[in-house]
Structure formats: C-alpha cells, structure tokens
C-alpha cells in the first residue's frame, strides 16, 4: 500500500557529530534478530567487536559504556559500525530512528521529536497539513472502519485557520471534541508519578499550569500540537479512543506552553530543546503515555456523566 509523510519529512537528515543530544547516549539499543545474524556472519575484524558488545539476553542489546554511551559511538560523535562496516550493518532501531509509523488504511511515516534536529524541522514547518505520498509500504491495511485520518484533517483545518487567533482555534478543538481539561493539581500529581530518564525533568514539569500563555510563540505551539495529533490521534479506533488520545496531545501542548513561559524560551533552539524533553520523557515512554492518556480518559468520562 501507499506510504505517506508530512512534506517536511524529507528535510530530515541525521546531523551525527554535530548533534548536541545524540540518541546514541542514554538509551538502551536493542539488536533485532536480522541484524544479529548479520553481525554473526560478518567476516570483517570489526564484526567480532560488534558481537562482543552485545548482551545476549531475552532482548539482545548493546552494552552501554561510560556515561551510558553506545559502545560504537566514537570520540567524534560518529558511528563506528557505519565507518567500519557500512550503513547496511545498522540494526533496525538505528536505521529507523527517529522515524515512526502509523498504520491505518494506509501507512504513514513521521519524524519523532525526541531528536532535536527533527524537533527543529517540525517546529519550523508551517505546512504540517500537507501529507504527500512518498512511496510504497509492505504493510497490510488494517480492517478498522473508524477513519482517524479524516478526523485529523478536520482538526488540522481548525488548527491551520490563521484568520483566527491561536487561542480561539484551540478553544474550538476543545469544544468540538468535548475535551475536559481538569484541575492543575490532578495533572501535577500525575506528573510527579511518571518515570523519568533524567530526574531533573520531574522538577521542570512541575511548572505545568493550564493558565500559562507563552506570548509570541503561537506558531511553535500550533506545530507542536499538529505533530502530536499526527503521531497519536491517527490510529484511534473509535470516537472515545480519539477523544482520549487528543486529550493526551492537548495536555502535552499545555505542558509545552508552560515550559516555554517558565523557562522564558525565545529561540528556535531553546524551544526545540523543550519539545525534545517532553517527547523523550513522555511520548517515548509507553508507561507515561498510557498513564496520562488514562487520566485524560477518566476526566472526559467524568465530565460526560455530569
Ligand atoms: S538525535 Fe537525531 S540528529 Fe542526533 S544523532 Fe540521533 S538521529 Fe542524529
């Protein structure tokens, strides 16, 4: 079936040694069976080093070294597997990162904000609603009747209507999909109970307030929300699921707004760093995403009962 992507997708290229927050540091990198087989059959001298660096437990992964670095990241910030063996020897995660996929009646790909370079591209692209066919995908279409993509288009029509102020567009989205914000204290408790890669971010996220305004940064807030909608709403399987997913996205937008305001972030780099932190700590943790989505779901069903 066809593979689609936002038009900004093709601007992405890993900046490798110029990256100030490499994804090769701090994350455990799993080695998929196909890559493991390639490494085991590799005759080049570096193949043996790759094999020695893999912990072969239930999920094989690279053993991180000092400061939680991937053992194949050299002192110049370059990947030794690419340098010594070529890109074909990358494992699936390294080849794909920061790409993610949505599977509905079609396949869609995007770039994830946990990569600051991707965050910079997303936040500087006003044309997020332009979704282009970029090729074919080998995945099969799903059999769900509900059309999350059509709802996403409707949300994008509201979000991209720049004849209205950003706050009016946001209010329209909350109202049209009956999203209940809930008290700050409820969200602050939830923020405190999340798991964190860097515990200082727990403190940072307590700056959350639904009343925050990040004056002059509406275009960044709009593009941030559009990205979250693309990534998290598209695969909704019914209207209640869609509402919960959207509520999660709107919470992340409020958190983003709160952090821009509290940190007085002004430049694209400063703002992209905050987007990256939210992405890395929240949407790249299945547990955190599930906890916040469930809370949003509870708040919505509570408000429907009253
Ligand atoms: S975070 Fe992004 S730009 Fe940096 S090394 Fe990883 S993929 Fe490349």
Can you describe this structure in just a few lines?
The protein has 306 residues and is α+β, with helices and mostly antiparallel strands. It has helices spanning 33-41, 45-52, 80-85, 92-96, 116-123, 148-159, 166-176, 184-192, 200-205, 218-232, 239-262, 268-283, 286-305; strands at residues 2-6, 54-55, 61-62, 99-103, 107-111, 131-136. The structure holds iron/sulfur cluster.
Description:
By secondary structure, this protein is of the alpha+beta class. It folds into two domains: 24-96, no CATH class; 144-305, no CATH class. The protein has helices at residues 33-41, 45-52, 80-85, 92-96, 116-123, 148-159, 166-176, 184-192, 200-205, 218-232, 239-262, 268-283, 286-305, and strands at 2-6, 54-55, 61-62, 99-103, 107-111, 131-136. Helix 5 (116-123) crosses helix 12 (268-283) and helix 11 packs across helix 13. The longest helix is centred in the C-terminal third of the chain and has 24 residues, at 239-262. It is globular, with a radius of gyration of 20 Å. Iron/sulfur cluster binds next to loops.
């Amino acid at each position: 079936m066809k593979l689609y992507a936002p038009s900004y997708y093709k601007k992405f290229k890993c900046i490798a040694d110029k990256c100030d927050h490499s994804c090769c540091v701090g994350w455990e990198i799993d080695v998929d069976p196909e890559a493991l087989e390639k490494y085991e059959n590799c005759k080049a001298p570096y193949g043996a080093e790759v094999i020695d660096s893999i912990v072969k437990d239930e999920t094989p992964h690279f053993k991180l070294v000092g400061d939680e670095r991937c053992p194949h990241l050299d002192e110049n910030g370059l990947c030794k597997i690419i340098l010594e063996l070529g890109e074909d020897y990358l494992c699936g995660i390294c080849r794909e990162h920061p790409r993610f996929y949505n599977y509905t009646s079609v396949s869609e790909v995007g770039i994830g904000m946990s990569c600051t370079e991707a965050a910079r591209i997303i936040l500087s692209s006003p044309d997020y609603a332009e979704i282009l066919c970029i090729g074919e995908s080998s995945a099969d279409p799903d059999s769900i009747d509900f059309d999350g993509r059509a709802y996403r288009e409707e949300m994008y029509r509201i979000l991209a209507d720049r004849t209205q102020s950003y706050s009016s567009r946001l209010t329209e989205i909350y109202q049209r999909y009956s999203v209940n914000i809930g008290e700050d204290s409820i969200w602050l408790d939830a923020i405190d109970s999340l798991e964190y890669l860097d515990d200082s971010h727990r403190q940072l996220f307590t700056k959350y307030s639904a009343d925050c305004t990040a004056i002059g940064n509406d275009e960044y807030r709009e593009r941030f929300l559009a990205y979250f909608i693309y990534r998290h709403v598209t695969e909704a399987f019914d209207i209640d699921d869609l509402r919960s997913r959207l509520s999660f996205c709107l919470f992340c937008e409020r958190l983003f707004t709160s952090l821009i305001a509290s940190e007085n972030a002004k430049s694209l780099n400063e703002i992209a760093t905050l987007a990256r932190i939210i992405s890395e700590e929240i949407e790249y943790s299945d547990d955190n995403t599930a906890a916040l989505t469930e809370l949003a779901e509870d708040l919505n069903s509570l408000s429907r009962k009253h």
